[in-house]
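Good morning,

Attaching, inline, the backbone tokens for the sequence recovery test we're adding to the shared suite. The designed sequence is right after.
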């Protein structure tokens, strides 16, 4: 099992190097297709909110995707952004990853809020790491709100001990139902009758 986990992580490292360092246009066609769908939903009168939620390495793909959305000219006030256990530095900290750094800098000057839920015991995510820093230090218009999942509060002690020992398992707990009701329950967030900003507004920041 440990070998499988190591290979799984290695594949992500290779993917990030290829997609955001060596072959930076590798995913453009697929991301554009996804961006077009989101833009169509943003223009539709059927929806009062469109949530873009990403997890783990998927949070990195949010950057070029959001860049395409904001550059489309579509009104984006209905768009809400949430990342779970983000690991953006795995791509944005490469010295030669100029394209994604430029996209992230552009996004930092847009009027929107990037919400992130992380956990310190999660060995894969970058907890409390502002997604816009250090690439956009000055004159940042976009806001980053960083929340702690505080898993230790919402699992029975014995269960939490087992989960904490397994970093791989911990990294996916954002997508699970906890033993006790959690304010960051993924299913409660996506099924809430409130918009994402209001759903998270009363949560305590770490």
């Amino acid at each position: 099992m440990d070998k499988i986990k190591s290979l799984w992580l290695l594949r992500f490292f290779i993917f990030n190097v290829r997609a955001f360092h060596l072959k930076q246009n590798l995913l453009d066609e697929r991301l554009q297709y996804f961006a077009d769908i989101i833009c169509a939903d943003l223009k539709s009168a059927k929806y009062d909110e469109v949530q873009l939620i990403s997890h783990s390495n998927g949070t990195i793909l949010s950057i070029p995707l959001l860049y395409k959305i904001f550059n489309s000219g579509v009104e984006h006030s209905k768009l809400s952004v949430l990342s779970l256990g983000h690991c953006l530095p795995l791509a944005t900290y490469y010295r030669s990853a100029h394209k994604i750094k430029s996209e992230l800098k552009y996004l930092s000057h847009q009027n929107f809020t990037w919400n992130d839920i992380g956990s310190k015991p999660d060995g894969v995510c970058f907890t409390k790491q502002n997604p816009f820093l250090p690439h956009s230090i000055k004159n940042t218009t976009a806001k980053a709100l960083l929340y702690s999942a505080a898993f230790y509060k919402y699992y029975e002690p014995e269960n939490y001990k087992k989960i904490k020992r397994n970093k791989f398992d911990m990294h996916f707990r954002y997508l699970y139902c906890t033993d006790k009701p959690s304010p960051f329950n993924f299913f409660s967030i996506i099924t809430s009758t409130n918009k994402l900003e209001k759903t998270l507004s009363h949560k305590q920041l770490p």
